Amino acid sequence: MSYLAITELQKYYDSYHALRGINLSIKEGEFVVFVGPSGCGKSTLLRTIAGLESSSSGSINLDGRDITELASSKRDLAMVFQSYALYPHMTVAENLSFALRLAKVPDEEVKEKVRSVSASLQLDPLLERKPKELSGGQRQRVAIGRAIVRQPKVFLFDEPLSNLDAALRVQMRLELARLHKKLGTTMIYVTHDQVEAMTLADRVVILNAGSIEQVGTPLELYRQPNSRFVAEFIGTPKMNLLPTENMIRQENELVFQLGAGEIRFPTARISGPIPSSIVLGIRPEHMSLSEEKGELNGRIELIEHLGSEAYAHIQLSSNQTIIVKVSARSDIKDGQLVNINIDRDEMILFNESDRVISLLAEEVEDV
Amino acid sequence: MKRSITRLLMAPSVILLLVWMIVPLSMTIYFSTIRYNLLYPGQNNFVGLMNFEFFMTDPGFLPAIFNTLTLLLSVLIITVVLGVALSALIDKPFFGRSIVRVLLISPFFIMPTVNALIWKNMMMNPVYGVFAWISQTLGFEPIDWLSDFPLGSVIMMVSWQWLPFAILVFVTALQSQDTEQKEAAAMDGATSWDIFRYLTIPHLARPIAVVVMIETIFLLAIFAEIFVSTGGGPGYDSTNLAYLIYNQALLQYDVGVASAGGLFAVILANIVAFFLIRAVGKNLTV
Ligand SMILES: Nc1ncnc2c1ncn2[C@@H]1O[C@H](COP(=O)(O)OP(=O)(O)O)[C@@H](O)[C@H]1O
Ligand SMILES: [Mg+2]
User: Fold this and answer.
1) How far apart are CA B119 and CA B155, in angstroms?
2) How far is residue A40's CA from residue A211's CA, in Å, rounded to a whole number?
3) Which residue, A154, A162, A214, B228, could crosslink A186 as a Cys pair with Cβ 3.0–4.6 Å?
4) Mind giving me the DSSP string for B81-105?
5) Domain residue spans of chain A
6) Rounded CA separation B101/B116 (Å)
7) Which residues line ligand 1 (CB under 6 A)?
8) How far apart (Å, rounded) are the C-alpha atoms in residues A90 and A127?
9) How many domains does chain B have?
10) Mean per-residue pLDDT for B198-220?
11) Are B151 and B67 contacting, i.e. CB atoms less than 8 angstroms apart?
């Protein structure tokens, strides 16, 4: 059932605990993205899967076989490095065929495979060049091509696009998505860029300080983060997080006082005991500005226009700033006082230890 | 106006360099065309190319050329091959690596004269040398290295002296080798040997070229080791060009023939350099 299974994987660099008990199961053909802030152990996890780092304990199974102790040359995985790591004194053609020639694949077959890969990645005019005569994007293509020719069990990518400029990155991202559709091979992709993670992944694995924070489809993570960390990490602009100092418990409602406004929340929706302090999470698109009354009110600090939409940064009288998505054509001005309406069904509540508080659906049942 | 000032300002150094080069060279050329034997002062008449004829028909001439080239090529091969192998071996971290590195580099700091004395008296002496002791312990007849294998002995000493230089250059070069490339190769299914063969050796092409060129310059003029250990003998068995010239100038007091020999050595060095740079220089442009 699971193609690649990682069980209780631990990794120490001397005394530094880099991977803290990773459990993960990946299905064949899945595109899985590891995402997390810099230094959280994404590369370490990927390199341990690749066999370039040894694990301290735990096991890795690939296609029904325990590969924990297997040398990386025998794992039948291909990796694309951030630095591309092309062989500098070999031509593009030699780079592409290196693994096949080592595996003693017959010449005719090598030629045929190199030809088909180079055609699919538009490398034909570059085949006789050395890596240093290529641009960044071209090197990237060769690195991907070198991985593809071998038809490995799993592709591993370690931040492959981070050395490219923004436009090229978007283009290569699309090409990778297309490639995955075409080949159908399992891919594991490491990035610190949540946009890459959201756009490419079938499933995203969010790592934090050496542990898995949450695993899910991009939409699951966006809509049902199970911790404050995930909520903040996924989505641009970030989810608004409002610590509420003044929380009043009324008979069947919680009243959060934020500056001059207040948000009321039915206690009945909170399953289990009610925590002593709560952080409110609400995404910018789940609020709207209004002329008349709103739950909150504040002063427009600045408006970011992105063309198709705009984001209003609003300062509440409690000095907290929240970001609200507004229509690009709205005529609000800096400094203007506005009322803010909140879609309470989309609100997410976090307890004092930053975990999500599970909520029962109110009237609507789409959570 | 401006140009003449530039020239004026550059003139001292240019002139100094010219004098520095031209004077010794032209004096050598001049000496090589006159009769100039210290035993017959005052008879310094012009003799044309006779000194060259003397030098080239000297019984030591052909052996000297042969020995010079043998010495050069043997030491180059030994230091490059062993240097690459040892550097690759100590490239991986292991306990005591820094000490091993210092020990491997240290022979370079020993003067050639001292080096030759150590080998002659402590290692190769047929009575109390280390080699003799090893042979006897194993039950063999000790070898008298300096008289039985004079050129081989010199090659051994010089290689020992120059191996550290090669190691120093190669170790530094290996540290600049990209680890991700090696990891990529490992993922491509390469064994350690494949990585060494297909990545490390090509990576070392340029450092090897540098080592070969620098060593060539010094190896063509090896003198102290021969002087201290074999004295060029027995016969001409370990005489190289430098030693033959010394032989002419100081043992036979014939400055004219020695100058001719010196010029010949310059020509030989140029020929060797031409071929070496052509062979090795290809790698430099990679
Ligand atoms: N070879 C190493 N030796 C010691 N610590 C390391 C080593 N490699 C990585 N680390 C540490 O492990 C942590 C995770 O690193 P890494 O997996 O590279 O993070 P990232 O998520 O940015 O890829 C970092 O704090 C880093 O300092
Ligand atoms: Mg990383």
Assistant:
1) 11
2) 8
3) A154
4) HHHHHHHHHTTS--TTHHHHHHHHH
5) 4-229, 240-366
6) 23
7) A 13, 16, 18, 36, 38-44
8) 10
9) 1
10) 89
11) yes
Q: Give A115-136 pLDDT, tens digit per residue.
A: 999 998 889 999 999 999 999 8
> Closest Cα to residue B229, out of B108, B81, B71, B62?
B71
Q: Which amino acid does the sequence have at A210? A: G
CA Rg, chain B, in Å? 24
Instruction: Give pLDDT, residue A117.
Output: 92
User: Structure pTM?
Assistant: 0.82
Fold adopted by A4-229 = Rossmann fold (3.40.50)
pLDDT (tens digit, 9 = 90+) per residue, A191-226? 999 999 999 999 999 999 999 999 999 999 999 999
Q: Which CATH number is A240-366's, of 2.40.50.140, 3.30.160.250, 2.60.40.1080, 3.10.20.310? A: 2.40.50.140
B283 contacts chain A (CB < 8 A)? no
**Hey, is the C-beta of B15 within 8 angstroms of any chain A C-beta?**
no
Interface predicted TM-score (ipTM): 0.84
Instruction: Say what percent of chain B tops pLDDT 90.
Output: 27
Which residues, at least 6 apart from A279, have a Cβ–Cβ distance to it below 8 Å?
A228, A241, A242, A243, A244, A349, A350, A351, A354
Report yes or no on B29 lying in a domain: no
Whole-number Å distance between alpha carbons of B161 and B156: 9
pLDDT-based confidence at residue A366 (cuts at 50, 70, 90): very low
CA distance B111 to B117: 10
Q: How many CB pairs under 8 A join A and B?
A: 61
Instruction: Report B:146-205 residues touching A (Cβ under 8 A).
Output: 178, 180-181, 183-191, 194, 198-199, 202-203, 205
pLDDT of residue A367: 43
CA pair distance B176, B200, nearest whole angstrom: 11
More confident residue, A292 or A30: A30
Are the CB atoms for B213 and B80 separated by under 8 Å?
A: no
Which positions in chain B touch A104 (Cβ < 8 Å)?
Answer: none
Cβ separation B187–A89 shorter than 8 A: no
The answer to whether position B32 is within a domain reads no
Domain A4-229 identical in fold to domain A240-366: no
